[in-house]
Amino acid sequence: MGQRDPRTEHGGIIVLSALLFPVFLLLVALVIDSGNWFAHKRQLQIRADAGALAAGVSYAQNWASCVQSAVPDLKASTANAIANVARQYAADPEASDYLPGSPPPSLYNPEIANQGRLDVVINSRWYTDDTDYSDWDSAAPGGSELPSGGTPPEPLADPCYFHPPGDEVSPAGGQWVDVKVKERDLPSLFGLFGLPLSRNTARARVEIRPATAASNFLPIGVPDTMVVKAQLRYFDECNDPSHTSPIATIDLAPFPDADQAAYQNAGGGTLWGPQSVADPAVGDRSHSVFLPIPSSGGCGQPYLPVGVQVRLTSSDQVDINQSCATLASSKFADCFSRLSQIRVWTDGDPEVKPRVEDVVLTGGCPFDSYFARLPDGATNCPYGATVNVEWGTRDDSELAVAANFSVKVNGVALTPPAPNQPSGTWTTVGTPFTADPGPNDVSVEIDWTDTTTTPQHTWGALQCRNGGQNPCEYDGPDENAHRAFVGNRTNAGAVELVRTSGSTFAVGLPGAPLDNVADGGTMTSIFPILGIRAVLKVGQLTTLRLDDPQANQTLRCDPDYAQGQEFKAFESGCKPWYKKNTFGQDPVDDPLQFWWNVYWDAPNKSCPARDTFFSYGTNSATNAWECVPTAPGLSPPVVGEGMSVATKNCATILNNSCGQTVCRNRGNYAEWLANGGDSFDPRVVRVFVLPYQALKGSTGGDPEEVAPVAGFAAFYVMSWRGSSAQNSDPCPDSSVATPPKGAVVGRFVQPVDYQVGPVDSTKVCVVGQLEVCRAVLVR
What we know:
Shape: elongated
Low-confidence stretches: 585-604
Structural class: alpha+beta
């Protein structure tokens, strides 16, 4: 075999290198292009994220202005301000165009990307410049660019616009700021070959969702009137004073919203009535029930009272049919007897004894005087009365001299129906009576004495005469004839109205009270109505009491602060995370587990004991506690110093107290609201919301005193009072009166929380609801 001539391989490497060199150049160019593209891509994403997050902060500062509808121009300007903040942090060179007449705003994050080739659009379905606010229609086609020849719709979906459900990123709808950033014509060698490296995009969105857990609470719990079961029972108060055998038991349910509107517009809360036959969970205002009216005779008094007993619970676990005494002493329940009554009067012979028929109470606190709820700040209720008297033949044309007849209620003389016509309705002038909290007996005294001498009258064939042994007279005793009841937090809990009516709604309000029945012994058709005080609302003026030794609203929400260190909790807030107690399956933490099966006593579904509570579980934003221990009431000085440091009005903070209170953040709710409702204002604090009567009898000394968390809310502090001027609000809101010692006055607000924590992405924030909204970043 012959040897190859080496001369035949000369120049092979050169040829191969010549062939591969362009490939190497292309690979190097691709690496450079890709690296440059990814560097720009990363920077664009930083810009989009920063713009969205900045919009979230702006939401937190301007949420009230963004969601109000009373001033459209304010809503529009707020939306543009939020959008412009997003543009600033996305370094949009056109940001100044959105604030005409203003100096160019500072731009943040302008690095790397070419500012001359940058497009930033807000709430657009495309990356095309000048298509802002076009994502109002979730069904419209989207894409990278506006279709050729297409025209963007009129700007509608600004940052304050409520998007309907259906968006691919935010299926639940709601408010959001979507930031899309595009860099055009990025220099690229491979762009010459048709590869899309010359265009770069990024997007981010901040949306507003209900927060499901939170921390940094003040050690304050506010019970809410979220009643889940209600019942009325009627009793013969004369023959069954111990309330052992009700003559009627009626389970109630809340009326639909449409049937609540007029009552709520008049200042009421929630109306409950007989359960609908079709749906027991809903009250039926047209559904009447029969009430057996006992006979008025045989009870040893001039009338028979039929009393109304009210039963309430805020927990499905409470048996509403157990004894009234048990309910009255139980948490999450109430039972009040004889809050209202029906007068059953005897239809006797007026010739033997003048007959007192209907005794009607007039005026009073809203909504009537048979049960009047004491308004906040009031100490009693004024009322009047009318009395219908049948005098028999004593009021014939001969005897009906006005001066001979007298009707008094609680010692006050009433005005007759007309001169010389004493039979009929006698009335008071105005509202001369004062009803104090609790039951108030209404007594009636009627008198007749014919002392006319010229001419001298006769009655029943008897000669009337002036002086003793006059047969023409009736000296009636001062007898109880009805009763007014004035309710407050102590004697009526959440009960606002108790109305037994003989007719259904009139103009959206309960019918007139069935307050008087003749004789009894019959079945009467009634429409029973129960009014329950409104649940806590945004804007509702509320007084928090932290120094009440009975049922105070003080909690111990942080294990690092022992009793006596409450000042630290006010200063720094409670660090653990808490969330709403669902009293049932919790699919977030564990779809196969109940929260109380881990931490609670499963058979009783009760919270862990107070003394061991903080040893249960590892606390975090995703594993938040659902109960909170109670604590002893605080003294007024501790309340005052605590609120001073919580609202950043304490100039000198000592080890566990405030050495000097000064005005650094004044209270002015109206101004705060008008300026957008800044969630970062130090006077906006976070408090716990607890179930109705969860704090009943709590003193913080019982190891079992732990309350489930019904939710959490934000509260704008308008004023507080300690024990002296040194620890009271140095600059309170002038629109509210000075609160009692140890109390805090303010209004619930709905802020946007910028805390990093869990939200419910399936729900939207409903304006006006008692919940904390949260700005959350999504992509």
